[in-house]
Amino acid sequence: MTEKRAGDRPYTGTNVDITYNLRRCIHAEHCIHGLAQVFDKNARPWINADGASVEDVAATIQDCPSGALHYWRKDGGAAEAIPEKNTVNVWRDGPLQFTGDLRLDGSETRATLCRCGASHNKPYCDNSHLTIEFSAQEAAPIDSQGEISGGPLTITPSTNGPLEIDGSLEIFDAAGNLLFSGSGTALCRCGGSGNKPFCDGTHNKIGFKSE
Ligand code: SF4
Ligand code: FES
């Protein structure tokens, strides 16, 4: 179950409430392009929770990669399902998109985390990869699949070091190639690894500061 978080701004509707967290938003605008009747950046307030059916609101919000948006149904309908497996999709020259049963800042199903090292809102992406023109060469794909089970994925941003990952997950590059399948790893968040998206210890050499 996703929890309400500090910084969540509520938008109350008849059958569904929506929360939006500006600090989590990476402005991918899936919401605005997906359901303009509800998400209109030129309107005030910019979210109208009664602008479409609850199903359409739920489907659109579940497509929000960052977890900035959440919904809270009041019509007895099902809450957002927790994905059966944990997945990281590595965006080309951009963040790590996590989906699953995530434990980060509480429980979460979606998050986009910085891997260029430049975000001012670590561990979350704030689109600084665009400003610094981050360019990433990913590790080679793998053929064999490891054992994947469900269960929580604990993400611990280590001080001046990588994202420590505890739990079962699969990692895919931007072309959909499998990069990792198994349990537990460490993912680069300094931007300097020679084996992205994995940590290779470069953060020590370059004096990465996570704060
Ligand atoms: S990150 Fe979520 S809230 Fe922000 S623009 Fe994209 S879909 Fe909308
Ligand atoms: S966090 Fe980038 S190499 Fe370890």
What report would you give on this structure?
The chain is mostly beta strands and 211 residues long. Helices cover 11% and strands 28% of the residues. The longest helix is centred in the first third of the chain and has 9 residues. The two termini are 29 Å apart. The site of iron/sulfur cluster has 12 residues, from helix 1.
Q: Which short descriptors sum up this protein?
A:
three-stranded antiparallel sheet; binds FE2/S2 (inorganic) cluster; mainly beta; 4 helices; binds iron/sulfur cluster; globular; six-stranded mixed sheet; 9 strands
Could you outline the blueprint of secondary structure elements for this entry?
Layout: E1 9-11, E2 16-20, H1 30-34, H2 54-62, E3 69-73, E4 87-90, E5 96-104, E6 106-113, H3 128-131, E7 153-157, E8 163-172, E9 178-187, H4 202-206
Parallel strand pairs: 4-8, 5-7
Antiparallel strand pairs: 1-2, 2-3, 4-5, 5-6, 7-8, 8-9
The structure holds iron/sulfur cluster (SF4) and FE2/S2 (inorganic) cluster.
Iron/sulfur cluster binds near residues 31 and 68.
